[in-house]
Specification:
The structure holds 2 protein chains of 2 kinds. Chain A is mainly β. Chain A has strands spanning 4-7, 10-13, 19-25, 31-37, 43-49, 56-57, 64-68, 74-78, 87-94, 102-103, 107-111. By secondary structure, chain B is mostly beta strands. Chain B is built from no helices and 11 strands. Chain B is globular and about 45 Å long. The chains are: A mainly beta, B mainly beta. Chain A binds chain B through residues 31, 33, 35, 41-45, 48, 50, 56, 58-59, 88, 90, 92, 96-103, 105-106, 108, and chain B through 1, 4, 30-31, 33, 35, 41-43, 45, 48, 50, 86, 88, 90, 93-102.
Chain lengths: 112, 109
């Protein structure tokens, strides 16, 4: 049982490049989330998907897009990366909005 | 949105000491979790505790939802307890967790 799997684990981008962060869960959870963590801070929600086929903005959505590909997979896309998007990105899932959430191992992204 | 404050921000302990970490939140919650972020950055689930008391080995947690706070107790601390402890809460809309700023714990041998 892998839980929540994120790829890649590390990435360096140049300003203006695009990339997609992938997330998959094997716990049959309905809800999935993308968070970012900046140095010395807690996590902040970027986007979430309460169920397959729906997505909504979180606290810091600007510069990102998401796709809930199916029940298992939720991807995060940076269309034109900026240095301010240098961060560690975490994907999470839970059965439904107010149940125990589980996190992936994170993707460390540096934009130069 | 809901505000989450954790205290203390930093804590240094000698191995074997006990500690209490506090999480205050500004509104009613349906979800409260404690996480340990280890030095490698991984978030480890400690407790899912929207109310009541739970214990797991040397760790225990209590949430008093009516008074809007939760406490995490660490007894007989070990160097492997070092890292950052986060409290995260979910409001009644149930769509997201809001994280506190964390307590950075260092346990010295």
């Amino acid at each position: 049982n892998a839980g929540v799997t994120q790829t890649p684990k590390f990435q360096v981008l140049k300003t203006g490049q695009s990339m997609t962060l992938q997330c998959a869960q094997d716990m049959n959870h309905n809800s999935m989330y993308w968070y970012r963590q900046d140095p010395g801070m807690g996590l902040r929600l970027i986007y979430y998907s309460a169920s397959e086929g729906t997505t909504d903005k979180g606290e810091v959505p600007n510069g990102y897009n998401v796709s809930r590909l199916n029940k298992r997979e939720f991807s995060l896309r940076l269309e034109s990366a900026a240095p301010s998007q240098t961060s560690v990105y975490f994907c999470a899932s839970d059965l439904q909005g107010d149940t125990e959430a589980f996190f992936g191992q994170g993707t460390r992204l540096t934009v130069v | 949105g809901i505000q989450v404050e954790q205290s203390p921000p930093d804590l240094i302990l000698q191995e074997g000491a006990n500690s209490t970490l506090r999480c205050n939140f500004s509104d009613s919650v349906n979800n409260l979790q404690w996480f340990h972020q280890n030095p490698w950055g991984q978030l480890i689930n400690l407790f899912y505790i929207p109310s009541g008391t739970k214990q797991n080995g040397r760790l225990s947690a209590t949430t008093v939802a009516t008074e809007r706070y939760s406490l995490l107790y660490i007894s007989s601390s070990q160097t492997t307890d070092s890292g950052v402890y986060f409290c995260a809460v979910g409001d009644n809309a149930g769509n997201m967790l809001t994280f506190g700023g964390g307590t950075r714990l260092m346990v010295k041998p």
